[in-house]
Amino acid sequence: MPKLLRGPAGLLGFLLLWEVVDQVGLVSKTFIPPPSVVLVTVWDLLGDPEFLRDIVATMLAWLIAVAIAIAIGVPAGLLLGSVPVLRTATAAIVEFLRPIPVTALVPLVLLVIGSGPDAKITLAVYASLWPIMFNTIYGMGEIDPVLMETARACGTSRFRILSSVALPQTAPFVFTGVRLSATISLIAVVSVEFLAGSQVGLGSFILVASTGSIRFDLVLAGTVVAGVLGYLINEGLEQLGKRLFRWSSVDREAIA
After folding, report:
1. Theoretical Cys-Cys bridge with 57: which of 6, 200, 215, 254, CB 3.0 to 4.6 Å?
2. 160-177 in b/e burial notation, b at 16+ Cβ within 10 A?
3. Could you tell me the CA-to-CA distances from 248 to 136, 181, 225 in Å, in that order?
4. Ranges in the chain, pLDDT < 50
5. Among residues 212, 240, 211, 206, which one has the least CA distance to residue 226?
6. Rounded CA gap, 146 and 148, in Å?
């Protein structure tokens, strides 16, 4: 089977299994509607302006969060990767902050920032920052020292070395970090929308559907749309990375 078709084939197999499990009565159709019902609901929702507004709100917050995470993570990774003393000095605080889950920070962020778009963007930036920064640091360690020494011997400033020598060499690692962070950021945005009770967004839609009329086909439809968006983001970035960095095997060495 062509590699391009393996993913859709696996998804189709999962949907068929889900349908069979529902139809034979192994699970309740009330709580877990079959895909034949959920996919029809998704189709109907795609014609609903309010649902489309929720998708746009989620994707806009996701895009802003990823852009901010790149703007912070890449320079921080270049700096920490090029100054071992600074990296050692900040290692403890970084390793303390990195494992903290986004959900644990929701109450604090809501108190400080509120429940508006700033909250979900802030937490999505926090969640997606680490893969970008750590892959950049790792990429710095893979640079041929001769390149750096040659640049220093020519009197090149540190900023110019980082921007003209280090950044191009670490680009495959940075891109892999961005790809990992893109899906993490989407998860964070939808989760915060759900937990914080945002006014708009896919997470807000799922929350309302699960607490209002309790239509589980709507809950699963919103979840399916979020999953499809995550898949398209990851697949699109993966294909772009293969075109940009065909010579690189960075994906096999990526740091999550």
Report:
1. 200
2. ebbeebbbebbbbbbbbb
3. 15, 19, 32
4. 252-253
5. 206
6. 5
